[in-house]
Amino acid sequence: MDIRALEALRAVRTHRGVTAAAAVLHVTPSAVSQQLSTLQRDVGVQLTERVGRGLRLTAAGDALADAAVDVAVALEKARAACETFLEHPGGRVSVSAFQSGAELLLPELLTRVRALGTIDLELLDEDVAQDDFVPLTDRVDVVIAHRPDGESASAGWAQSEPGRGLVVVPLFREPLDVAVPLDHPLAGRDAVRPEDVVGEDWIAVREGFPVAGVLAGVSSGTDRAPRVSQRINDFHVVAALVAAGHGVALLPRHTFGRHPAIRLLPLRGIRAARRVDVLMRRDRAERIVVRRVVDELIAMTAALDRG
Amino acid sequence: MDIRALEALRAVRTHRGVTAAAAVLHVTPSAVSQQLSTLQRDVGVQLTERVGRGLRLTAAGDALADAAVDVAVALEKARAACETFLEHPGGRVSVSAFQSGAELLLPELLTRVRALGTIDLELLDEDVAQDDFVPLTDRVDVVIAHRPDGESASAGWAQSEPGRGLVVVPLFREPLDVAVPLDHPLAGRDAVRPEDVVGEDWIAVREGFPVAGVLAGVSSGTDRAPRVSQRINDFHVVAALVAAGHGVALLPRHTFGRHPAIRLLPLRGIRAARRVDVLMRRDRAERIVVRRVVDELIAMTAALDRG
DNA sequence: ATCACGCTGTAGTGTTGCTGCATGGACATC
DNA sequence: GATGTCCATGCAGCAACACTACAGCGTGAT
């Protein structure tokens, strides 16, 4: 029973296919396919089944993939057991964050981790759809992700059920405020209610991306649906559009609270917020250096609302 | 980090040397040595150190070996997870027992396991010194071993501390009675006391073998040491010698209670007994078929004194 | 009907891990 | 103090394994 084959099985599950799995494992699909077949021959049970032109794990394959997580965790614990005898646990840790989270967190994180000494961080900004955060954990040690407030962590992140190989560490809750230009009629207000702003032209994020659904909550207290005039993912572009008077938008408070050309108005009456979490593969989370990095993130965000 | 290398590390620890480890792994010492060096290069910590002309694990190596046990257990759990989807979990299970235990248990065990169906047993009788039962678990799935009564399991079996990779399942406690020939002056008694028999000529087992120390307990209540005239390990030879009037001996009650030519006299006043345990490597114990076999052993001996 | 996509075999190749043997250090014996 | 034995380790050679490249085939989309 080969470790690499178990790894391949996990990858096929999370990425729903041999080809995608092969990509993250940096091998050809043929190699993954062969690993699966040898694994299958070894255990004597059907592990995968064709569905359409794709592939899916059987119940046995699913169980084995779950067990494979424990194997990977045990292996990483073994490595960690040795690292405790090293005076300077070094190594490379990759961290990815969605765009605005990266802006808010990564500079200070890099400063703090540099101060720790021997860990060298590899920062990435990955702007992906909501469903693609979890697969990212196969390529990146620490994934900083966000999701709409209100969902439970296990509902927000697929495969976060215990044993499924995902560790979720909540960092903070960040309110989403209504951004208006400085010369907007509401700009002088301390806060707004949904009915105050539901009639505006809205600039939203693309469908499928995190917090896209939050805007729908604005209309929940009213009888109208918000009118979305633009769909822009980059919050800085959104802010520039708002500043220029092309509409209003929901923007994260901590990242854009000090923007000079727009005004952020808290929403009263509904919970408009996103939650920022750290996602990790359970085995990666065992690495001491990874733990250190996450500890820094927790310390950095301790002052923020943990909600 | 290779599984086989971790396995090699464990073997080097239990067998105290590269050569002995290589023997149980069915490879050359050179291969084991190379596995250790690649493992060492991988983790970056010294794992072994020369001591005399031999080799010993460092603290780091010891910790890694402990962690390696968990890896092996996780791997075996993975295999077991697949086997639950198999309707007939089959496979080979090897069982070894010390000589008299084998005589008492193995015939019925074989009958019972045959009745279960697809498991094929590989029986072995291994008469080894007390310290050599634990290393046996590397070659045999289920080791039936015995030890003097009164010792705790962790004292009796090296490496049985939690995490050390050994599972101990107590089976039963078997009294050791004084065997005398039928025409012996004491043969009519229901029981004897140490002072009754301490002056006899004793036939004992060789030093270092299980229950060798129990005879010393006979003299504890008296001021004399028992006179050992012969040292014979095979209980049937011992019984024949006793029957021929060449001395008395301590023999296990359940195995020799019905011997026609000797009489077994319970010892009053001291606890003269041995304990029979099942020893397994933790990873081997995870196999479903191994569990089945052990369950049969437990059921077979349920009627005996579990002490 | 054609194309595109995805998984799976097969042949070829590069790497890996093992064996066999020689070396050097450590303990025991004479 | 010299010799022999035992044990771990390095090196060369070899065999087995795992991956890549490519072709084939089934499925779904255009």
UniProtKB/TrEMBL annotation, chains A, B:
Keywords from the UniProt entry: DNA-binding, Transcription, Transcription regulation
Pfam families tied to this protein: HTH_1, LysR_substrate
InterPro entries in the record: LysR_HTH_N (IPR000847), LysR_subst-bd (IPR005119), WH-like_DNA-bd_sf (IPR036388), WH_DNA-bd_sf (IPR036390)
GO molecular-function term, one example from the UniProt record: DNA binding
SUPFAM superfamilies according to UniProt: Periplasmic binding protein-like II (SSF53850), Winged helix' DNA-binding domain (SSF46785)
Domain HTH lysR-type span(s) in chain numbering: 1-58
GO cellular component assignments: protein-DNA complex
PANTHER family: LYSR SUBSTRATE-BINDING (PTHR30346:SF29), TRANSCRIPTIONAL DUAL REGULATOR HCAR-RELATED (PTHR30346)
Family from the record: Belongs to the LysR transcriptional regulatory family.
Name listed for the protein in its UniProt record: LysR family transcriptional regulator
